[in-house]
Amino acid sequence: MPFLQLTIPTFELPTHLDQQTERQPLPLPACPADLPLYCRYCGRDAVACDDQDVALCADCYQTTAHVCGDCGEVYVGTGCEDCQACCENCNEVIPNAEARTNDDGEHFCDDCYCELYSICEHCDCEVAVNDIRCENDSCYCARCFDDNFTTCDDCGEAVANEDFACRDRSQTICNSCYEDHYFTCERCENICHCDNYAEDGCCCDCDTSGDFEAIAFRPRENTYGRTGSARCFGIELETSECDDFHNLDGEVCFSSKEDGSISGKEFVSEVLCGDAGLAEVEKFCDRAEELGFSVNSTCGYHLHIGVSDLTEAQLVSVSTAYNLTYELWSTFVSESRRNNGYCKRNSWDIQSHSDFARFADFARAQDRYQWFNIRSYCKHSTFEIRLHSGTLNASKVCNWIIAHLRFVDAVAKLSPEEVKRIFAIPSPADMFAACLVFWPADVTEYLAQRAAKFGTQLTARELASAV
User: What is the DSSP string of 252-284?
Assistant: First the structure.
């Protein structure tokens, strides 16, 4: 019976090792137990391995084995592990003394290391070239860059922290932009844009040419039966005519101020709360009616709801709820308000808040002239609802306050996922039905009548029976 012929695959010896030199044969090392049977290069019986665990016969071993000139030890392959290193990038063999080692323990020649890595000039840590941040001819790691530089809200450039005129929750303005476009109000000491300059060094909010301050809101006792909420609120009522407004000075918890978008004055309440707060609103509206104040289509009614007590998750829940229910709230106002540039439909996606470290940072990046203004959170810790048209009708003003106070309290108790599940529904009628559990019957009936007035039928009784 003929013997089977076994063919052993072989490989060419690398050219840089295929050079025999006349020298005394080196002793063979101990043979490892798991050594392959045959030499990779010539196919003969293997007796040793190189530094890549490639099996070698005795002759090939003698070809590839060398005596280190530094330590005298025998090594097989590209270099002595104790005295030499191989560059991870270009594979050049270099003495250990000349090798550069990165933070992961990898070895590089000097040229490759300088090409791939740099050193943060602030903390001296190693940074991959692709991750380095350079500013003002200096290089920084990401952490040190964020600690030492901030992006200016006006010009969008990264500027050293010490070169900022203003860094607070509401805005971040560099010195250069401040000199070109901003001033410091002499009254409130806030940094304001030049567009907000009134006269005598004051911003429009502090312009006291004929205006008066509010009396303090200090009720002796307060109840919460009407509001159904202990949450604070404040309102801004714009007017087109208010000739005798000085008669209110010292009477009401409202101050007067100029507003360039209207022909009359804007009246801004103190921070109010509870049923006593509603009573102050009614008192102001009644006096405004007595004095003949009026509004027109240029006027708005802005409601601020205090949210300083809410967690980051609750802020997201409330913002999500308002973003999803715009179609419902817009049924309660006229068409002119839905298309008004001072209360535009929100353009932001609440999901993008995860791109920011804090909700306040996300809010600061938004336009204030949107119907649900979250930017006000940065300055006042409030959410501002700007959708309602101008009015001095106490019933309209108070019902709007109650509806939003109870809505915020209710949705703040829900997770963002629960909010999406409840309000991801197709029509204002369905949204209205979902909100019936939040509002008292008189507010529900009032809102249904408002919607009907502007062309949307939301019959509270029928909806209640359907829920």
Answer: SSEEEE--TTSSS-EEEEPPEEHHHHHHHHHHH
Strand partners, 21: none
User: What CA–CA distance (Å, rounded) separates 231 from 236?
Assistant: 17
Q: pTM to 2 decimals?
A: 0.59
Percent of the chain scoring above 90 in pLDDT:
45
Burial zone of 311 (CB within 10 Å; 0-12 exposed, 13-18 middle, 19+ buried): exposed
- The predicted structure's pLDDT at residue 311: 96
Q: Is residue 424 classed as helix, strand or coil in its secondary structure?
A: coil
Structure tokens at 179: 């000199």
Q: Which residue, 147, 258, 179, is CA-closest to 211?
A: 258
Structure token pair of residue 115 = 């090409």
> Are residues 80 and 68 in contact, defined by beta-carbon separation less than 8 angstroms?
yes
Handedness of CA 286, 292, 293, 297 (dihedral sign): positive
Determine the distance from the C-alpha atom of residue 12 to the mean position of all C-alpha atoms in its chain, rounded to a whole number. Answer: 59
Beta strands in 341-448 (DSSP E): 372-373, 382-389
Q: 286-290 — which CB contacts under 8 Å span 24+ positions?
A: 286/394, 287/247, 287/248, 287/251, 287/252, 288/237, 288/239, 288/242, 288/248, 288/392, 289/392
Nearest Cα neighbor of 44 from 13, 3, 19, 10 is 10
324 near 351, Cβ under 8 Å? Answer: no
Question: What amino acid is encoded at 211 in this protein?
Answer: D
Return the bridge partners of 174, or none: 164
Domain ranges across the chain: 29-80, 153-206, 232-466
d(CA 412, CA 399): 20
- Do residues 93 and 86 touch, judged by C-beta distance below 8 A? yes
Axis-axis angle for helices 394-411, 312-324 (nearest 10)? 130
DSSP assignment, residue 197? B
- Give CA separation, 296 vs 239, 265, 299, 337, in Å: 7, 12, 6, 12
Residues facing residue 100 across a β-bridge: 108
pLDDT digits (tens, 9 = 90+) for 195-231: 777 766 777 776 655 788 999 999 999 999 999 999 9
Q: Are 78 and 88 in contact (CB under 8 A)?
A: no
Return d(Cα 390, Cα 398) in angstroms, integer. Answer: 13
